[in-house]
Design brief:
This protein is mainly α. 65% of the residues lie in helices and 1% in strands. It has a single domain, classed as A middle domain of Talin 1 (Up-down Bundle), CATH 1.20.1420.20. It has a two-stranded antiparallel ribbon. The longest helix has 36 residues. The protein is globular, with a radius of gyration of 22 Å.
Length: 365
């Protein structure tokens, strides 16, 4: 949800006028940064390659699924599971770009439609039984990557697909992957067209490309902190204990890997690290041009290191659903380090950049 203020006070009008003066060059070295270069970097080296990789992974996954539905053997299922993990990884690099052409006027953005969890398995099974293969609806908790994970990784997956009445199950699986591939191809094509206007929209007012990139990057970070970590750990306001059933990946047990991949994706925007690992222009470079930015830059870099230190101490194959119950201090420590970063990149950084926060995280940060 975006927050829109209605400014009618003369004092507020004056304040906005002063801010506009700063934006036009009265902020000393703060306005020497060329935001067009940041947008060019994010489009050419991060955004477009990420959507390409996501589309490629989705197509490869679809081919493996078709092979499996025609030959429901253990080896084919394992191949599908391996491809699903590849799609999940690539999705972490595109999920924050849920603005512009990523927003369907009716169904919402791709992150909502492909990345919703937890899955309502009872409703999903009901849809299979009723041969309800419609993907253009608001039952997001019965489709996307989570639904595909359930069908491929739940304990009875193979036997259910090998049963005599598996036709509907196979059809639903194929419908899910067709929807995934359709989204990935549309995103790839639409962003290729949209990137031309995105790269030259170098203002920083609400709705500009710079503001959209910053706000959705930040919002994605907070969703990771609040929903991938805090919610299953029982650390959200009103929770009385851990909620292991709310982990992102309860069947493939890829929740920790998904967290690490998303941190990598978010950090790449901060540093401007291209998908081919080459160094480029990121928000870190922007911050270094601002008066007082050097100190904040050092704090953010140190905090990225702290987050990595905590994550490195958790094995990739750790089941988060078990960690939050058996070793809750590790989950608490991870959340604490993620929370420390929020102050730097949401409060302090927004103030120095002069970019307004246009969404509400709902957690009081």
């Amino acid at each position: 949800m975006q927050l829109r203020g209605v400014y009618i006070s003369g004092f507020i009008v004056l304040a906005l006028s002063l801010f506009a003066c700063k934006e036009n060059g009265e902020n000393g070295k703060g306005e020497t940064f060329n935001r067009s270069l940041l947008l060019e970097q994010s489009a050419q080296n991060l955004l477009l390659p990420s959507f390409d990789s996501f589309a490629f992974a989705s197509e490869s996954f679809q081919q493996k699924l078709y092979a499996f539905t025609n030959n429901t053997q253990q080896s084919e299922l394992i191949a599908c599971q391996d491809e699903w993990l590849k799609v999940l990884r690539q999705f972490q690099f595109v999920r924050m770009y849920n603005f512009g052409p990523s927003e369907d006027p009716l169904l919402g953005d791709h992150n909502e439609n492909l990345g919703t969890w937890p899955i309502d398995t009872a409703l999903l099974e009901s849809r299979i039984a009723l041969a309800d293969f419609t993907m253009k609806d608001f039952r997001r908790d019965t489709r996307g990557l989570g639904a595909l994970e359930y069908l491929l990784f739940e304990p009875q997956a193979l036997s259910r697909f090998q049963s005599n009445d598996a036709a509907n199950r196979k059809s639903y699986l194929n419908s899910l992957t067709a929807d995934l591939t359709a989204w990935s191809q549309k995103l790839k094509n639409d962003w290729l067209v949209y990137s031309a206007s995105y790269k030259v929209d170098a203002g920083k007012s609400a709705g500009s490309a710079t503001s959209e990139l910053y706000n959705h990057w930040l919002q994605s970070y907070e969703l990771l902190k609040n929903y991938k970590v805090a919610l299953p750990a029982g650390l959200q306001v009103g929770q009385t204990g851990a909620a292991p059933h709310l982990v992102e990946s309860p069947f493939a047990h890829a929740s920790i890997r998904s967290i690490k991949w998303q941190v990598e994706a978010l950090e790449s925007i901060w540093y401007g690290i291209a998908r081919n690992a080459q160094s480029g222009i990121g928000f870190d470079d922007y911050l270094l041009t601002l008066t007082g930015g050097e100190a904040l830059h050092a704090e953010i870099v140190a905090q990225w290191i702290s987050i990595h230190n905590v994550l490195d101490a958790i094995a990739d194959d750790t089941k988060l659903s078990e960690l939050v119950l058996n070793d809750p201090q590790k989950a608490q420590t991870l959340f604490t380090e993620l929370q420390k970063m929020t102050r730097f990149i949401k409060g302090d950084m927004s103030s120095l950049l002069g970019i307004a926060i246009t969404y509400s995280s709902g957690d009081g940060d």
